[in-house]
Every structure is written in C-alpha cells, then in structure tokens.
Backbone:
C-alpha cells in the first residue's frame, strides 16, 4: 500500500468526490507498439493493473488482425483473464468495429464493448474506410444487438478537438455525431482528443454544447493525448464541468496507428497524482501502478514516458523486472 506523504491533499471546490479511470493501456497503449507484445505479458499487465485498483481495464480489440496486428491475439488473450474477477469488481471492455467483431467478443463472454467513430470525414475514411454516416449505420446493429444481450456499450468519438488533415473541427459537427452515437443506444460517450490539440476553454465549450443538445455530462468521459502537454489541464477543465470518467494509459503508452501526429495518452500515474492531490478518490494505489509501469517498460525495452513514473522510480531502467 501507499506510504508516501506526497502529494499533500488540497481539495478544490466544485470538483467530483470520485473519478472512475478508464484504463486503456492494454489496448490503446499496446496497439501502437512497433513490436507485438507477447500474449502472456499482456495478460500479466492487465492482472497487475487490476491489483493496483483499476476497475475498468480495456483489454483488447476485436478488429481484423490485418488492421491492428498488435492485437491479433484477442481470442487467445481474453480467456486468460478469467481470474481478474478474483481481485475485485473489474470490467474488461473490448473494442468491436462491426457485427463480426461483436460476434467474436460475445463468443468469449465479453460483457462490455465499445464502437469507435469519428467526428471528421477524413479520419472516418482512413480508420473505418467509410463516411461518418456510413460508420454510424454500421454501428447501429452492433449497439442494438449488444443492448439486447444486456452488454454495456461505450461510444468512442475520435477527432473531437482537431484533425491532422482537416484542421479545426467545428463544435457543432462534433455534437451532431456524438448525439447520433448516443441515440443509437450507447451507455456512455468518450470524447477523443486524438492528436492532443485541445485546450481547456475548448473542452468546456464542447461539453456545454453537448449538454445543450441533450447529452448529459454523466454519460461523458474524456480521452486526452498529451501531444502539447495539455492533457492534465484539459482533464481539470472537464472535472470542473462535472465529468467523472477519465481515460488514461498506464505509463503514458499509446497513440493512434491511423493518425501519426497522435502521441501518447495521458499517463494514468500523472492523472492519479493530480487527483490524489485534489483529494479525489480513484481507488488506485499509485505505488503499485508505478511498479506495474516500470515492469512493463522493462519488457518493452525503454523507460516509461510518464513523468510521475520517472519521478517515483528515478533509478528504474528499461531492463526486465519481475
């Protein structure tokens, strides 16, 4: 358990008492690795994340192996995670791009899935090989079937704050697609700053516009990349608006194979350090989580990019650790 006296807790008014961290390192983090991580290492990574107190851990993606070869072992990985339930009430969401992906996930017992759309046409074409509206049409039967089977459905929306090909993305354009995803029946919506260009005022403006369109803050999560060092400030703006679900990646791993300007995700450790200091509960043991990221960095052969991991483990190297 944590024995550190820092960060000192100094709560700020108007913030939620508790935040649920949607951990994406095992999926969004590892899908961007140049070398495929062994299935057994992925399974151990997820187990260690659960021991650290994370209760929502995105496990893998049931996309065609041709498109994301790093996650081609979804059928082999998911059955190895049955013992995760022994360490607490842990949800293991998986991505499904279409009905075939849903079939594969449900056959292995998945009870939480996510579809992933785009707020822009260019990224929809590059990532899903279809238009935004055609993507929504593809998701409709996936969401309907999942909900009929009482499976939780998350809707990811990429390029909410900027697109590397189209530039600035109008807020109204994002709201239209976000609302359409929710109207399909998604239980929650994750707003993706895929290339990390958001700023706090932009975050507040989009969240307010979604509220005006009938999308409640309680159904919204945020997913920030740290390309310009804005992920934590953007997260704080979202918390001030009432958001209580924040996506993050252990060790700051990740990116997007279809948007090369997308660098790593907000590091879970950096997020937990800030939330601990604000007196916001997460249920996460930061020392245990840091040790997990150091362990994984050893297997990836390089140090973690997370500032908090480096600060708490100054003597850590990229050599394997048990």
Residues:
């Amino acid at each position: 358990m944590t024995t550190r006296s820092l960060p000192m807790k100094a709560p700020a008014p108007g913030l939620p008492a508790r935040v649920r961290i949607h951990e994406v390192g095992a999926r969004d983090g590892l899908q961007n690795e140049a070398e495929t991580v062994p299935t057994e290492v992925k399974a151990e990574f997820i187990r260690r994340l659960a021991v650290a107190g994370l209760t929502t851990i995105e496990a893998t993606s049931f996309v065609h192996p041709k498109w994301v070869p790093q996650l081609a072992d979804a059928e082999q990985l998911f059955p190895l995670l049955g013992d995760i339930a022994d360490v607490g009430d842990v949800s293991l969401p998986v991505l499904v791009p279409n009905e075939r992906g849903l079939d594969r996930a449900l056959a292995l017992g998945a009870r939480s899935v996510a579809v992933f759309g785009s707020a822009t046409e260019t990224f929809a074409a590059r990532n899903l090989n279809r238009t935004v509206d055609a993507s929504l049409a593809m998701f409709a039967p996936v969401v309907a079937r999942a909900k009929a089977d009482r499976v939780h459905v998350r809707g990811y929306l990429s390029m909410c704050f900027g697109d590397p090909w189209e530039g600035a993305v109008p807020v109204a354009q994002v709201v239209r697609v976000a609302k359409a995803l929710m109207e399909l029946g998604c239980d929650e919506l994750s707003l993706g700053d895929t290339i990390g260009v958001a700023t706090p005022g932009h975050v507040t403006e989009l969240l307010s516009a979604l509220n005006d369109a009938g999308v409640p803050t309680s159904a919204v999560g945020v997913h920030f990349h740290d390309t310009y060092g804005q992920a934590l400030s953007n997260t704080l703006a979202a918390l001030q608006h009432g958001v209580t679900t924040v996506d993050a990646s252990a060790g700051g791993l990740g990116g997007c194979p279809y948007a090369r300007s997308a660098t790593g995700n907000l590091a879970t450790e950096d997020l937990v350090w800030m939330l601990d200091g604000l007196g916001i509960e997460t249920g996460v043991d930061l020392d245990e989580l840091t040790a997990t990221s150091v362990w994984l960095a050893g297997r990836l052969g390089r140090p973690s990019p997370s500032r908090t991991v480096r600060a708490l483990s100054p003597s850590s190297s990229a050599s394997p650790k048990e």
Q: What stands out?
A: DSSP finds twelve helices and nine strands in the chain. The beta strands are 20-23, 56-57, 60-61, 94-95, 112-118, 152-158, 188-193, 220-224, 245-248. Residues 317-322 have pLDDT under 50 and may be disordered.
